[in-house]
Design goal:
Layout (H helix, E strand, L loop, with lengths): L10 E7 L10 H13 L9 H11 L6 H10 L2 E9 L2 E8 L4 H21 L11 E5 L2 H13 L19 H5 L11 H4 L5 H10 L2 H9 L8
Antiparallel strand pairs: 1-3, 1-4, 2-3
């Protein structure tokens, strides 16, 4: 699938998977590490104390960032993150590009930072992800709604989380139907505000057929792992 041409003020489906479909998240610490990087690299400011902050995220489920650090990240960010799902061997994001080249910079920082961490932890070398990230332009509101449902239904592929996708800790589904754990570092309102209440969105995700259709279009495979 050719990558979309990315332009400011537009929304995109971003995804990638491990080399040879291998798992890229092996334990909870790996997921937490990626989540911290995902939230804090929306601007180009340097990252500090990533390991310590990841441990805090594991323990508390939230970020241990000062209000000043969050404000600076928000002020200087080059993308907005709308939705995400981290699966054992791949990831999906919805992002809005704010500055030209912002999405490419964002994904480059995420993948480089996480690959360095993963290779050091598991004593491996080389590429972790299967080539450059893929991108699909979101060209309509209907597409955006169904894409969010598709992303949030991904954990259904994991036996432990089937029919409990809204409780899966490594996606934004619970942030759409409950309290947003990430504050203004996650912007779900473009989707969430189109539903009268969280129950309506839950029902929409359950009945949406986007998962089956988009799986065929983008050829992302899930590993049945917890």
């Amino acid at each position: 699938m050719p990558r979309a041409i990315i332009a400011p003020d537009e929304y995109y489906h971003i995804f990638n998977r491990g080399v040879n479909k291998q798992s890229v998240f092996l334990d909870k610490a790996d997921y937490a590490r990626m989540l911290f990087v995902l939230m804090t690299t929306q601007s180009l400011i340097p990252l500090y104390n990533v390991g310590r902050n990841t441990q805090t995220l594991l323990k508390t489920g939230g970020l241990n960032l000062s209000s000043a650090a969050v404000k600076k990240n928000l002020k200087d960010r080059v993308v907005e993150l709308v939705a995400f799902a981290l699966m054992p061997n791949h990831f999906h994001f919805i992002v809005k590009e704010l500055e030209e080249g912002g999405t490419s910079s964002y994904l480059q920082r995420i993948e480089i930072a996480y690959t360095k961490y993963f290779n050091a932890k598991y004593r491996r070398s080389g590429y972790l992800f299967q080539g450059p990230f893929q991108s699909v332009h979101v060209s309509s509101n209907e597409q955006l709604l169904h894409l969010s449902a598709y992303i949030h239904k991904n954990p259904a592929e994991l036996s432990r989380w089937k029919h409990k996708e809204d409780l899966y800790p490594w996606s934004s589904y619970q942030d759409f139907v409950g309290e947003n754990r990430w504050g203004k570092l996650l912007i779900p309102e473009i989707v969430r505000n189109q539903f009268d209440n969280p129950g309506d969105y839950l029902n929409f995700v359950k009945i949406s057929g986007a998962k089956e259709r988009l799986d065929q279009e983008i050829s992302i495979d899930s590993s049945d792992q917890t």
